[in-house]
Amino acid sequence: MRLVPLFLALFWSFVGLAQVDPQPIPGRLLLRLAKDAPPAAVQRAVQEKLPFQWGAASLKPLGEGGRYHLLLVGDATTDPLRLQALLKELPGVEATQPDHYVQYRAQPNDPQYGSQWHLADMNVEAVWNTSTGGTTATGQRIAVGIIDSGVDGGHPDLLDNMVFDAPASDEHGTEVAGVVGAVGNNGEGVSGVNWDVDLVSPATVNTLSDVFQQFQFCLDQRELFNQSNGAQGRLIVALTASWGIAGVDCGFGEPIFDDLGAAGVLLVTSGPNDGTDIDVVPDFPGTCPNANNIVVTSYGQLNQVPFAVGDNTVHLLAPGLDIPTTTIGGGYATVDGNSFAIPNVAGAIALLYANDCVTFAQAAVSDPQATALQVKQAILNSVAPFPGGSAITITGGKLDVHAAYQALAGQCAPCTEVTVDLNTPAGAAAQYTLVDGHGQQRCTGQRRADHLLHDGGLFQRHGGGRGRSAARWHLHRDGAGRHHRLGQYRERCAELRDRHGDAGLHQPRRRELQCTGHLR
Asked: Disulfide check for 358: which of 170, 271, 302, 493 has CB 3.0–4.6 Å away?
């Protein structure tokens, strides 16, 4: 028999019943500093303001280089509302917010393996015929941040997709991660919405202060990716917020929500696991009005909708009942809750980024905010009808991943110029052959790089070779006596990926094709 530590058992009894104490945590206060405020000077000013009997004060940054800090006072019983009243006008302090324990949106059932009905119902399997996740059309790895209670990164169905793993792991975070990205087609357990995706679980989240710290971590990763043109950081496209706090002010978090949106990160959240109308009862961060927020509620196989709704706040429905997924210790469970509708949507976002449009992939770096909102609108504009959905959600429908994928594909601008870069050990001796969808040779070349120009429906290589544009093209290379297909080039500018060698499924692909163009 496995023994569960008492504090963990008590914590999960609160989480499972959605009865976390809504009172703020004593002895703590969140501070949002002005952009130019030195934290050390603010800490000194705070200490001068505090009554002697409250003890020493310390200011802990919530993420590297961020404006959010956690104030801890020596007397752990200090009323945070008294702290807030005392410090809210302090120079350098832009806003304050009591700290709270987060409330997870889960109600785990007994561990069991069940049919993954939700994947077919979300129409995701049709997308898998084209993409199962992994990279953008320019070969950049796609990531989802699991802002949760920790993930069992050693789980055999998650191990190959984990890139940042918190030292502590927990059931809830492991179950959420499995919905997004349990490895598919590996003969093991279940499949996530993505077979292949980078899962980022930087630390355990129990409090609001933890939330801001992990938001900042993921923001730093995405900003570094954008600023380095993909050479550093991570292409984090979505965060799961499978938790919430009733009554917390959204305004305190607005700057970091704005920064996440500007960086191209969508936040997926929900209301609580009850029938609350969150148009009326606010819930953080589900009712926060930031443009990069996607709010979801759950439905089951019988179209039952047991959890929070709001026709002015909840965007759409997604499967959240009887969801088979991974759980801690290498096992599996069938689970209920808005916690699992959320990762279905976050997983869909990551899968949509793995489309074959090069101009879309380029815009994800050059204009990340507009690209993220384009993905959000593709999801919201492509929902499938749901009985009574218009009375409980903004769109009136449920997630349809394939329809959203097709909507994005329809917005892809065609290439006007393509650069083929062989980039092989054979160097200048490397050869390529471009053949059309019928297997007929159209272009050949022997240099390291050649340009194919779109000209009236034709692609023509400088110096010779001409062929009418077919539905699909293939590039072959011959280096050191080898000849094999590298990938596919479509008129919509798919990436040519190196499918040969020992790079491994989860290693970044070498970029073999560059396309110039603009999103419509």
From this structure: 493
CB 340 within 8 Å of CB 176: yes
Residue owning tokens 């589900």? 286
What is the pLDDT confidence band of residue 241, given thresholds at 50, 70 and 90? very high
Q: Model pTM?
A: 0.76
Residue linked to tokens 């963990």: 8
Which residue shows structure tokens 């939700």?
118
Q: Strand 316-319 vs strand 323-327: parallel, antiparallel, or unpaired?
A: unpaired
pLDDT band at 14 (very low <50, low <70, confident <90, very high): very low
More confident position, 22 or 148:
148
Residue 383 burial (CB count, 10 A): 22
pLDDT over 80 (residue 349): yes
> 90: which residues sit within 8 A by CB, 6+ positions away?
42, 45, 46, 49
Q: Is the peptide bond before 387 cis (omega within 30 degrees of 0)?
A: no
The pLDDT assigned to 23 comes to 86
Query: 254 near 280, Cβ under 8 Å?
Result: no
Instruction: Say which residues have a Cβ less than 8 Å from residue 238's Cβ, sequence separation at least 6.
Output: 144, 145, 265, 266, 267, 268, 345, 346, 349, 350
CA contacts within 13 A on the Cβ side of 421: 10
> Could you tell me where the beta strands, DSSP code E, fall in 292-393?
293-299, 316-319, 323-327, 331-336, 384-385
pLDDT tens digits, 443-497: 555 544 444 433 333 333 333 333 222 223 333 333 333 322 223 333 323 223 2
CB atoms within 10 A of CB 65: 9
Closest by Cα among 192, 197, 177 to 118: 192
SS3 call for 433: strand
Looking at residue 428, what is its pLDDT?
Answer: 60
The count of C-alpha atoms lying within 13 angstroms of the C-alpha of 125, restricted to the half-sphere facing its C-beta, is: 8
Shortest CA distance to 510 belongs to which of 138, 259, 148?
138
- DSSP 8-state secondary structure symbol assigned to residue 494: P
Q: What is the rounded CA–CA span in Å between residue 349 and residue 222?
A: 15
Q: How far apart are CA 432 and CA 24, in angstroms?
A: 65
Tally Cβ neighbours within 10 Å of residue 370. 12
3-class secondary-structure state, position 283: strand
At 286 the three-state DSSP class reads coil
Question: How far is the C-alpha of 149 from the C-alpha of 166, rounded, in Å?
Answer: 9
